[in-house]
Protein: Helix-turn-helix transcriptional regulator
Amino acid sequence: MENITGKRLEFLRERKGWTKSLVAKKLGIKTVSTYANWEYGLRQPDSEMLVKIANLYDVSVDYILGRHEHAEGKEKVQGMWFYDMDNLSEKDFEEIEEEVREYAEFLLAKKKKRSGKDS
Structure:
């Protein structure tokens, strides 16, 4: 069986330039071998630890488990929408909302043109 979780953990750690020892320390794990065993696929982190790992690397648990292909999925993009919106006037909010909608439509049209699909 393929070790998707372990490969993802290794990828995320190396992308940060961190050692296994540093990650273990950041996660509050007493022995480095515990974390190393997760990367090697010998053991799996429990659900609570998966959440801690996801938060550490700023990815979803689904990404770590291999359910999503990209570390930065829709959740991250959708979360950007709520970034500091409290201080906006209603007019500013509506203008930004329209700009985002237009840009999303532009990107979708661009993608459709690249793929040669008309529908």
Remarks:
- Residues 84-115 form one domain.
- The first helix runs from residue 4 to 16.
- The chain has a mean pLDDT of 84.
- The radius of gyration is 19 Å.
